[in-house]
Amino acid sequence: MTEQSPAVAAAIEGELRLLDPVVRASAEALAAMLHPAFREIGTSGRLWERDTIIAALTTPDPGAPRPGPLTASRMRGEQLAPDLVHLTFDTETRGLRSHRSSLWRLTESGWLLYFHQATPFIDDPFAEV
User: Fold this and answer.
1) Alpha helices, DSSP H only, in the chain?
2) Residue 31 falls within a domain, yes or no?
3) Number of domains the chain is built from
4) Does 16 reside within a domain?
5) What pLDDT digit, counting tens, does each position of 27-67 carry?
6) What is the pLDDT of residue 112?
7) What sign does the CA torsion over 79, 89, 124, 129 have?
8) Is 25 helix (H, G, I), strand (E, B) or coil?
9) Looking at residue 124, what is its pLDDT?
10) Mean pLDDT value of segment 83-102
11) Which structural domain, as residue segments, surrounds residue 79?
12) What is the spatial order of strands in the sheet that 71-81 belongs to?
């Protein structure tokens, strides 16, 4: 296996922080990690923007379903340009597994998540191990 670039390592560290329930519950922490132009296509197919995802994750709503702890696997990255890293990985939460793809951009304040997409899957016989 080849050694990761510092940019890929920084993006992986950021992605793992975003999976932390404490970070996910903090509007300030999320705002500090999400690019101002952030967009996400969630597992439901819903399109999220920065403000809507922060509000959804941090606004207490007893009737709203809350995501459980996310477990990540098979995370890998590639630096596409000096200021751009692409990560792919899988997650599992409460039996729901998703293939995920993220783009991280280097800004004056550091590496920020610019785009994220999650695609649910049941079984993937073609998945690389």
Assistant:
1) 6-18, 21-24, 27-33, 50-58
2) yes
3) 1
4) yes
5) 999 999 999 999 999 988 999 999 999 999 898 766 555 56
6) 98
7) positive
8) coil
9) 62
10) 93
11) 6-59+69-121
12) 47-49, 34-41, 110-121, 96-107, 84-93, 71-81
